[in-house]
Amino acid sequence: MVEKTINKMIHTKELALNSDDYCPKCKGKKSMMINILGNMRKVPVLCKCEKEKYEKQRMIDENTEKIYKLERLREHSLMDECFKSCTFENWKHDKNSQNMYRIGINYCDRWQEMKKKNMGFTFWGPPGTGKTYLSFCIANRLLQNYVPVIAISTINIINRIYDSYKRYGQQGEVQIINSLKNASLLILDDLGAEYTSKAGKEKQIIYSILDARYRDKKPVIVTTNLNLKQLKEKLRGNDRIDRTYDRLLELAPPIEIKGISKRVAEGKEKTQILKTLL
Ligand SMILES: Nc1ncnc2c1ncn2[C@@H]1O[C@H](COP(=O)(O)OP(=O)(O)OP(=O)(O)O)[C@@H](O)[C@H]1O
Ligand SMILES: [Mg+2]
Ligand SMILES: [Zn+2]
Fold first, then answer.
1. Atom of ligand 1 at shortest distance to CA of 223?
2. Which of 158, 125, 123, 117 is nearest to 137 (CA)?
3. pTM score of the predicted model
4. pLDDT tens for residues 144-169?
5. CATH number of 117's domain
6. Which residue, by CA, sits nearest to atom 24 of ligand 1?
7. Which of 179, 215, 252, 264 has its Cβ near the most Cβ atoms within 10 Å?
């Protein structure tokens, strides 16, 4: 009986909170007593400073994860280094480009709706009017929001497919087209500027890419120098059926981009600088 009482006393003493259970810094509890099925048990808890330390570490981990995710998305976007600076923040505003800016910003702001409605654009118009710039601004803004985007020139994707034939045969093409299909948004820059030597094969590749997106109900943004009649002809199959153009128009309704070439304007500016050097 005496032994039992002593045991109980020791046990209770062990169980009770003592000075070690309080944080010397914030004076908060580092342990607490809880009743588990009738037995009192001491369990560890986080004091205020431990909580802060934990929260700080969690935020660091979260940020590292975000940065890592962004890097991976950027890598998978296939985007050339030089287009990474195409951003709405760097946008040079002028009278001609206000509508383009609005379209781009609104598209990104309403991305969930655009994605659901499978909405893209065909930006067509003369060289140097900022079609590529606008498309890559959209790509960069969406990537920043963790949307998987692939943004690549049509020539580049065709070359990649040709290269993959050498290594993987026909399977290479299937794999590349599948990976394009996986992106939430595909940007095909400079459609219609492909080589013409193997036009039949290229038409088939472009058809496969657009058809895969069409069937998956996933949006595409296209830029082209061709007007709509020229584009239709360029994409026309050997059997003279417009199945590619037809899909494109539904996926990516055309928007004409007017104005004078920004390259010409930049060239003029450089001529002025040159004059000052002479
Ligand atoms: N809004 C803008 N802000 C800053 N620079 C721009 C803007 N739009 C275009 N530029 C610059 O002007 C030049 C031409 O633009 P871009 O390449 O987008 O034209 P494009 O319409 O795609 O031409 P092309 O039809 O020949 O491909 C590029 O150097 C681009 O960086
Ligand atoms: Mg372009
Ligand atoms: Zn503490």
1. 22
2. 123
3. 0.81
4. 999 999 999 999 999 999 899 888 88
5. 3.40.50.300
6. 127
7. 252
